[in-house]
Input
Amino acid sequence: MYEGNPRHCWTMAGKQGRQWRSMCKGLVLGTFLTSCMILLYCLSTPQIHLSLPEVPVPYSCAHRPSQLHPKPTTNSSHQTHGQTCAPKVDIMFMKTHKTASSTFLNILFRFGEKHRLKFAFPDSRNDFFYPSLFERSQVKDYRPGMCFNIICNHMRFNAPEVAKLLPVDTSYITILRDPAELFESSFHYFGRLVPFTWKIPGDDKLTEFLHDPHYYFDPEGFNSFYLKNLLFFDFGQDNTLELDDPRVEEGIKFIIDRFQLVMLVEYFEESLILLKDALCWEMDDLLFFKLNARKGSTVSKLTPELRARALKWNAIDWKLYQHFNQTFWKKVDAYGRQRMAEDVAELRRRNEEMTSICIEGGRAVEAGSIQETAMQPWQPIGEKSIMGYNLKKNVDKAHRKLCRKMLMPELQYLTELGVNLWITKLWGHVRDIINW
Ligand SMILES: *[C@@H]1O[C@H](CO)[C@@H](O)[C@H](O)[C@H]1NC(C)=O
Ligand SMILES: *[C@@H]1O[C@H](CO)[C@@H](O)[C@H](O)[C@H]1NC(C)=O
Output
């Protein structure tokens, strides 16, 4: 009867209200995603079968011996010993989901441009075939023996493959977020991409889900990882383990051993100061505007009860977070609480200064009020809840370029850095057509 005729489907949608409409969208989406997966699979198959020769990675991919660009010893620096150190330029940033990582990517992009670093980017899209495990062959223009400085797009972490791509001296860094907040954000942002959520009744699907997650959750379901221990999953681990499974402890140990710095969203500025200290960067490198922020009305405030449920449901991520929250504050103690407070205050002051220089009206606005398409952020499925910025009209020449880059959303910046995003863009056009 339906014969896959979308017009028939839409007519019915008109008659039977929103539920049909959302089911139709689901079908269109499902079909589209499946086609995409098949297409991508076909495109990537030859690469997978090509066994790459093993060429040892270099020790470092810094352009010049590190002594040649020492950190200037200015008086504004709080470094009392006046030591010089060279900024670390070989960086693996494990970009976790819904963790302010777009804001951090903007910082990395600017740092990379400043030092003319080579990024290992994905090809044709903005992630490394997530949720498949990372493989070197997914890197754009990859050939064994090449030198890359930075990798920072979404991936499902796969340590051996990353180690075969990046130099030995690479600094591994990542960022975590309170798992209850992360779960709420992920549910908001990705919920509609997870088919088992379509059958959850009511308007407040999150609350309903958390009241009986075992009933609704389908571990085998398409995209189900977005809704359980997403952090642990991003690190390449099994997100469905029971908390007392020994592999949970092993997985956390593995992350501890691998990553030199684990930043926390809740203490973003403090994290950046620790980063500056660990990688020998400058305060100028840390300037940022908060990108991809959600409109206030769509940010749900979890009640204490829901928060407790969310943490129980994401128990592995909660354990992971608590561990790194402890080590974080040990690092802050080692850095010096007072010194940290002063540096954070300086960073905030500098960011505010940049805000008044660059941003029209001094704050983020809703998508509809953003004048330039170049400044439009990518929106979640089904709504326009992500805010963006308008660049001030007459920024002085000295700041114009910096302002533009600081405000540029991730996809636009990737394009500017030479990444061809045709799959991502095609997906955007399809969404425009079906008005999702
Ligand atoms: C640092 O400050 C001292 C005096 O406070 C000044 O003599 C010196 O030139 C300054 N150094 C730099 C690199 O600005
Ligand atoms: C993280 O650690 C700090 C300092 O010990 C503590 O105040 C805070 O409550 C912890 N956060 C979480 C979410 O456990």
Residues 1-15, 66-71, 76-81 have pLDDT under 50 and may be disordered. Residues 18-49 form the longest helix (32 residues). The radius of gyration is 23 Å. The chain has two domains: 1-50, 86-292+302-333+413-433.
